[in-house]
Amino acid sequence: MQKLIDKAKIEHTLSKSEIIAILKDNSINDYLFKTADEIRKNYTGDEVYLRALIEFSNICRCDCKYCGIRRDNKNVSRYRLEKDEILKLADFAVQSGYKTIVLQSGEDMFFSAEYLAEIIKEIKQNDVAVTLSIGERTFEEYKILKDAGADRFLLRIETTDENLYGQMHPQMSLANRKQCLFNLKKLGYETGTGSLVGLPGQTLESLADDILFYKELDADMIGIGPLIVHPETPLKDEKNGDLILAIKVLALTRLLLPDINIPATTAMETLHREGRIWALKAGANVIMPNVTFENCKKNYEIYPNKVSVDYESLKTDLAKIGRTISSKKGFRGNPDNSGRFNSSPAGRGKLTRCKNTEKEYDSFGS
Ligand code: SAM
After folding, report:
1. Which of 5, 266, 357, 364 falls 20 to 30 Å from 25 in CA-CA distance?
2. Which among 345, 339, 274, 321 has a CA at the least distance from the CA of 48?
3. Distance CA 71, CA 60 (A)
4. Is 276 helix (H, G, I), strand (E, B) or coil?
5. What is the 8-class DSSP label of residue 48?
6. Is the distance from the beta carbon of residue 33 to the nearest atom of ligand 1 less than 6 Å?
7. Is 23 in the pocket of ligand 1 (CB under 6 A)?
8. How far is the CA of 5 from the centre of ligand 1 (A)?
9. Whose CA is nearest to atom 3 of ligand 1?
10. Ligand 1 lined by 106 (C-beta under 6 Å)
């Protein structure tokens, strides 16, 4: 098995059966993680890129079986930030030194491409990269957003198993999800995808297919999240995903796509206090602190007990493993040197505004 990992370290390829063999064999985990960490160091260095996450709407037309903000969860207090609130959060992130702003939401069609384009253009007045994570849109809409200045787009494939995809995502299709990703690539976005590890009925074979799909797409970013069961979803009686398996998928992804950006996801730390650090020591090089208004964060509950990043302890934890916080935008394979990170983004006072728009949700949310 070590030979397989050594081969992947040099050639950055593995067959489906080789990936499955590594996923099955837990005696090889330390070697796998150590090798992925070496590749991360060689290709992306010791700097960790921070991306400021703004969760600007929890209104969603989708009904994904695992997701706490799914359309049919009537116990969610829905909100939708206004343009000036989003810009205020973006400004806070810029002033704090973040070089990437991530705008994430449910699939809230109130935010037309044209309206989002206005917001992107304003944020892009600053020297920052903008990443979108707003779900499925048409090629034309993605183009409007790209033309407005958006740099990156995150859209997880979640699973490449067509049956499982259909079961988990009512009224959605794997084919359309893939088409969206290829459209994003074609439009020149740095394109991010990834999987949920631990969906009920998911097999190691399908996880191997997921990894090969990332390679086929030539994804620029991969976010792997262990499933965390939300009590107000149809998956409430299922088990959480296996954190170590999720980190193995991350490490294998690093072997096959050596120069991409890979976050240590919040879901990993939510499952285990050390989860984020383990991921950073197994191939990850990105962290996405949440800068959303405090009272909105709690309503963007895709899964329970989501942890947040404390800047000072993050810096200390990173130093312990020989890593530093980057002041660059951190594009794939093309680091830039602009900007400096302020000493304490968290120390600028808390932002607490958030408008509750339950009424509007009744008319726009489905
Ligand atoms: N609507 C956008 C989209 O579909 O890409 C972005 C928002 S969506 C809530 C962001 C991600 O949350 C999804 O890609 C999914 O993998 C993750 N997620 C949702 N529910 C989850 C859960 N219960 N456990 C772990 N991750 C979850």
Report:
1. 266
2. 321
3. 6
4. helix
5. E
6. no
7. no
8. 30
9. 135
10. yes
- In CATH, what is the architecture of 29-330? Alpha-Beta Barrel (3.20)
CA 60 to ligand 1 centroid distance, Å: 11
- The pTM of the whole model exceeds 0.90: yes
Q: For every one of its 366 residues, what pLDDT tens digit does the chain have, with 9 covering 90 and above?
A: 999 999 999 999 999 999 999 999 999 999 999 999 999 999 999 999 999 999 999 999 999 999 999 999 999 999 999 999 999 999 999 999 999 999 999 999 999 999 999 999 999 999 999 999 999 999 999 999 999 999 999 999 999 999 999 999 999 999 999 999 999 999 999 999 999 999 999 999 999 999 999 999 999 999 999 999 999 999 999 999 999 999 999 999 999 999 999 999 999 999 999 999 999 999 999 999 999 999 899 999 999 998 888 888 899 999 999 999 999 999 998 655 444 455 444 434 445 455 554 433 332 222
302 CA to centre of ligand 1 in angstroms = 6
